[in-house]
Amino acid sequence: MSVWFVVKVDFPRLDVNCTIDTGDQVNVEMHCYPQDERGGLHTNFINKYVYFLTDLHSSQKSVDVKYRKLAKTYQITFCMYNVFSSLPDYVNWFSLRTEEGFQLTDQINMVVIELDKIGETLNKPVEKMTSVEKWSLFLRFAQEPVYRNKINDIIKDKEEIGMAAALLREISQDEHERARQRSRKMWEMDMYTAKEEAKEQGHEEGFAEGHAEGLAKGITEGHAEGKIERDRYFLSLLDQGLSVDEIKQRLTQTTTNN
After folding, report:
1. Can you give the residue ranges of every domain in the chain?
2. Partner of 179 for a Cys bridge, out of 3, 7, 136, 165, CB 3.0 to 4.6 A?
3. Quick one: which H or E segment has residue 214?
4. Of 26, 43, 35, 54, which is closest to residue 191 (Cα–Cα)?
5. DSSP string of 17-82?
């Protein structure tokens, strides 16, 4: 496999774009922390990857190339948290299909690997693990000392994991710059989306809070204005020569009628 760029940005995410031996394009991303989304549906997460998956697919050379010969494109995202809580598998593969399951095309593919679901695989002998299981365990537990022996066994068994860091250092500056631009755009969209979500939530909470505050304020101000009007009415009755008892009776009648 020939890796053509890697970028790490100031965000809890690592992106690697590569072209494999078949010519297919693969974007691999490590996502560490979930974004707060309304309803917990991860709509921003999903739509973001659909957007950049199709953007990567359409970026390949199309002049003098037959459409049937376009390379396939894959977005592979490793998540340290659950995205699809209703799906038991930690690896979920999505492509263009009908509701009945008929696949329209395998040109664009999105794979989400939820590392938080893979804990039980630690009990599996390394020699019986698949490559995906080894990489997933490495990415999930490499930084945790308690699993160091298991991770070392995986590195010994899977040479590519040990070679990965060395391969990434061989990337050219031009390719690095292209990756920086794409990853920067992804970062900016992440930040914009997070800000807009916070703004919408703040507006809703602010409206509810402001409505309650305004209602309370209105009641308080209404009570104060009512007291002033009542005092004025009381003085006008005194000016008319009514006694205090007659005024009390008049005020009681007015309150009952209202």
Report:
1. 2-203
2. 7
3. helix 173-239
4. 35
5. EEE-TTS-EEEEEEE-SPPP-GGG--HHHHHHHHHHHHHHHHTS--TT--GGGPPPEEEEEEESS-
